Amino acid sequence: MKKIDMHFHTTLSDWKKSNEDILKMINPKEIDFLAVTEHDIVNVNMQKSLENMWIATAYSTEISACDYIDSKSMHILHYSREINNRLNPNLESIRNARKEKIQIQVQKLIENGFNINYDEIISYYKSKWVNVENLVAYHIAHYIYRKKISLDNIAKISGKKDMTADAFYKSFMKRWGQFADIWHIDVGDYEFNIEDFNKIRVPNSIVSLAHPNVTFKNDIEEFSSKIEKLVNLWINAIEVNPMATKKYLDVITYFGHKYDLILTFWSDCHFSSTFDWKHWQLFHLNQELSKKQIEDNMYRIKDKLALNWVSNEKFETQEFFKKWDLAVMIGRMNPPHIGHLRVIRQALRENDKLVIFLGSANVVNEKNPFDFETRWEFLEAVFFDEIASGKLILSYLDDCWDDGDWTANLWEKLKVLVPGFNWKLNFYGWDFKEDRAINAIRDYENRLNIENVNYIQVERDHFTLPNGLDISATNLRNALNSKDFELARKFMDERIAPLVIGKWEEK
Questions:
Q1: 130 plus 259 within the same structural domain
Q2: How far apart are CA 109 and CA 367, in angstroms?
Q3: Using one digit for the tens of pLDDT, what is the confidence trace for 245-271?
Q4: For residue 158, what are the domain limits?
Q5: Is the pLDDT of residue 312 over 50?
Q6: Exposed, middle or buried by CB within 10 Å (0-12, 13-18, 19+), for 72?
Q7: Considering only CA atoms, which of 137, 131, 39 is closest in space to residue 92?
């Protein structure tokens, strides 16, 4: 297996190796994917150097973010194929606010008896190969612990003789510390607000919660609660840090399966001079990860970043020497439940393109409570990137009393949606015995005039709720009709559930 690293830092962030140092360390033939994640800045020069070496990479950064509602700071990893011009102004704002905050923080400490000097602090961290434009209050707390007079002052202020630098930082300099009202410097809510993720989203991007085992330490319950919220705010990945325990990895894997989240991995490497718990070496992986987990998620990472996708241009040039795999799904999905989404995801993984026809588009009744546009909105909440890139096409299909006419209409629409290339046609579904659409297509397959027509049934294993209730649109609609919205949520993805329930309550 080739080497991979999606989370490491250079001197542009806060450690010791430059771009040139790192490029000398690596052999392109041994690397499958490499992405540098500086704090609140995109290392464009490294990106271009990796591309010139034909190494798969992405524009990436580690964002200082905050849930201001729950008073929780965290780091978010962002990867995309192109420079995200929606995100960059926010990153610049974070960096500028941080520099202002450090200057004011140092002055505050001087006024309260600490013998420190801003220029000396800058000089000290420059000598330690730290990018001084990325200093935070944590750096200041550790700097003042170098002087005995500072320790005496801290003991006098806190009443504790053995307070550590970390404890001082958390109690005095953190936004929600015990003495924050006296010592903390607030320059406004400068960290990126997690509620604004949707405003900076771009197609073909990965937004991953960095090192949850570090951010939430042993509080798995807090982590679990936060993931539920972040998924609803467009997080689509979780990082597996090298030091995450098996217990943590099991919880990460559980939520990964539940919400189809990508697992991002690797080192969080700062090229530390000591091999400590936080700053590991390049290409260091969590030992609990299996080879299959790594390979499966690496495929998904490349797919999400569109590194594996067939471009629309290739379809348009009609390269007849290749048989393209075109998946087609037909369903009312009224509304979509997690069973539908599982089939969609499998079809996306296994094909070059997927066309979904939302059936009964001309009918609104008890079995079809939502119109076509509303169902499009539900699916777009989960598959925004795939729709924007053209890998997933959504269309409508009206009911028709004659199966032959219905099949002919399906075929004509398909030729318009995906014109003139050489394909293998794969119809996906979940219960072919009861699927009237699939049976009609089989009966009139000769009208399709295609050599390769396949029918792929995705098994419905694990498709029951803990109470034994089958996951089906009928049971979901029954829960909505009875206004048991807690039960209804269990049938749906967290990004779709609030939309469906909100529309239902408007009825």
A1: no
A2: 66
A3: 888 899 998 888 888 899 998 778 876
A4: 91-183
A5: no
A6: middle
A7: 39
